[in-house]
Amino acid sequence: MRADGPQDAPVPFQEFVLKVHSRCNLACDYCYVYEMADQSWARRPRVMSTAVVRRTGERIAEHLRGHGLTTASVVLHGGEPLLAGAHRLEQLVTELRRLAGPRITLSFVVQTNGTLLDRRMLELFRRHDVRVGVSLDGDRAATDRHRRRPDGGSSHPATVRALELLTGPRYRPLFAGLLATVDLATNPVRAYESLLEFAPPTVDFLLPHGTWSTPPPGRPADPARTPYADWLIAVFERWYAAPRRETGVRMLEEILVLLLGGASRIESVGLSPAAYVVVETDGEIELVDTLKAAYPGAAATGLTVHADRFDAALAHPAVRAGQRGAARLPTACRVCPAQRVCGGGLYPHRFRAGRGFDNPSVYCPDLYRLIDHLARRVAGAAAPGAARRPARPGGPRATPDRPAVGFPIGRTGAAVGTAETILGAPDRANRAAVRPTAGTGEAR
Ligand code: SF4
């Protein structure tokens, strides 16, 4: 492994994902915590204890002060974090802010399935300025396909009730957005429009987790087929063609920003250094927890907040690898025209048993097709129904007749203007310093 040069200085963590409760009151069939390779949830305490909260708060403050940082975000996560109860959540937020002290600003967001989100919880979040992200896949039919209760009952009515409360005038400022998992069985435009009914500030469509060893549902072996790209392109066309900006669609916006020369704020696309870390209910420090989809223990670091500073996690080889920009790309991606925008996709999606993570994403054909479409569309080179260019999985190469993805951007000023308009004129300078986050989206 090469020595770190100055350009490789570790990027301190600025987002801390706290697993405040390790269980869930739903039984979503695609959940990476309970339904995939890693089953470590079963040995963890149900709820993060007061002692772990305090130690985590001390470690966060120590890390931020040590790196001269004055802001960070904390994601309250699970399982279902609201199972921890209002009292414990209030204690946690209060304690972490107390330990951070007056010179550090911690912003909080909770990512919930919404079924326990009642007026009492919302009053608590309003009092403590905790923003709320809610997971919902679309209308009742879409939600019922995957997001069911353990007894098979629908979770949709309870989540909708919570969203009606959250989106009322008193609590709407807390609304962070909706998180939806792509389901090929759902009509993409219908899913998008049913989410729009809640006027979310942003919608985050996630690809269901999978690896080369356990492919995502409906991801065919034939690299010429791109069902997930086709699904997301349908959403893109509905979103992009709208006469006014109805909401943000995080993954699509991030790809557009990358095509315009900016940096991504999410870990699933782009090459920005990852700068977040996970703390489990028992205080174990873990890597991005979607790694649980790859193999048992994939997210483990062997570190805990009891014994280790977050700087020790920063020095972990997997964290260092995730901060190395283009050097972290899988070998096959290094000749791909889409590499700067795609970034090889989400790290867990590269896994293949016996070969580790040095592979393109299992979604490679979809990512290439999606990026290519957006690049040509915003440059005016593609009409909504234009003939598609074939996906070139496993390391597409730039050739004279196949320029790097994003090539048209910047040659057609009007087209760039269109993209910037829909994005709210992204500031490239600001974007250059951004770090991808787990936010309300990546980790669930
Ligand atoms: S080869 Fe595939 S996974 Fe790798 S950067 Fe290109 S499109 Fe992305």
Automatic annotation (TrEMBL):
<keyword id="KW-0949">S-adenosyl-L-methionine</keyword>
<keyword id="KW-0408">Iron</keyword>
<keyword id="KW-0479">Metal-binding</keyword>
<dbReference type="InterPro" id="IPR007197">
    <property type="entry name" value="rSAM"/>
</dbReference>
<feature type="region of interest" description="Disordered">
    <location>
        <begin position="381"/>
        <end position="410"/>
    </location>
</feature>
<feature type="compositionally biased region" description="Low complexity">
    <location>
        <begin position="381"/>
        <end position="404"/>
    </location>
</feature>
<dbReference type="InterPro" id="IPR058240">
    <property type="entry name" value="rSAM_sf"/>
</dbReference>
<dbReference type="Pfam" id="PF04055">
    <property type="entry name" value="Radical_SAM"/>
</dbReference>
<dbReference type="InterPro" id="IPR023867">
    <property type="entry name" value="Sulphatase_maturase_rSAM"/>
</dbReference>
<protein>
    <submittedName>
        <fullName>FxsB family cyclophane-forming radical SAM/SPASM peptide maturase</fullName>
    </submittedName>
</protein>
<feature type="domain" description="Radical SAM core">
    <location>
        <begin position="3"/>
        <end position="250"/>
    </location>
</feature>
<dbReference type="InterPro" id="IPR013785">
    <property type="entry name" value="Aldolase_TIM"/>
</dbReference>
<dbReference type="InterPro" id="IPR026335">
    <property type="entry name" value="rSAM_SPASM_FxsB"/>
</dbReference>
<keyword id="KW-0411">Iron-sulfur</keyword>
